[in-house]
Amino acid sequence: MTPSDEILDIVDENDAVVGQAPRGEATARGLRHRCVFIEVRDAEGRLFVHRRTPGKLVFPSHYDMFVGGVVGAGESYDEAALREAEEELGVSGLPRPEPLFKFLYETAGHSWWSYVYRVRCELPVNPQVEEVAWHTFLTDDELARRIGEREWVPDGLEAYRRLRAFRAGGAAS
């Protein structure tokens, strides 16, 4: 099965399941589905940053400050967060990611409910070659300096903006 064939729950504006569709169809038709974003920090508190592979269905070759992806049909956000983090980082035995907040990401061509998590990964990472073309760990200051220098995934930038507001005591919306 290819990533395009993966079955996703299609959800409404309240995140209630209203149907199912293959991922490729959901992407092509802009059907609202569910995604997870996991902020991964190492033992020193640095953030895992990577460049997506050119073959990715959405935002190929863009940089991202989160690992994550779509939530499969019938899968919970929490299950997807752990699965995606372990898959993309190439680790097993990762602590369960901590849920932080949820928001609706919408643009002209994309719509998904997005749950943001965080996790500390003290294990050596071996990123999944199908997902991650390049990676490093950056301090918050290093990441802030690089935001304008590279092409970042737009949903990740929105999640990052909301995460910074959340940490500053503001609303994540």
If you had to describe this structure to a student in words, what would you say it looks like?
With 173 residues, the protein is an alpha+beta fold. The chain contains four helices and nine strands. The strands form three sheets. Strands 6-3-8-7 form a four-stranded mixed β-sheet, sandwiched between helices.
Q: How is the secondary structure organized here?
A:
Elements (H helix, E strand, L loop, with lengths): L6 E5 L5 E6 H7 L3 E9 L5 E6 L10 E2 L2 E4 L6 H13 L8 E9 L4 E10 L11 E7 L1 H7 L7 H14 L6
Parallel strand pairs: 3-8
Antiparallel strand pairs: 1-2, 3-6, 4-5, 4-9, 7-8
Features:
9 strands, 3-stranded antiparallel beta sheet, alpha+beta, single chain, 24% helix, 173 residues, 34% strand, 4-stranded mixed beta sheet
What form results from the Cα inertia axes?
Answer: globular
Q: Average pLDDT, to the nearest integer? A: 94
CA(first)-CA(last) distance: 35 Å
Rounded radius of gyration (Å): 15 Å
Strand percentage:
25-35%
Largest sheet: 4 strands, mixed
Task: Specify the helix fraction band.
Answer: 10-25%
Which strands sit side by side, in order, in the main sheet? 6-3-8-7
> How many DSSP helices?
4
Strand segment tally: 9
Task: Show unreliable segments.
Answer: none
Q: N-to-C SSE series?
A: EEHEEEEHEEEHH
SSE-based structural type: alpha+beta
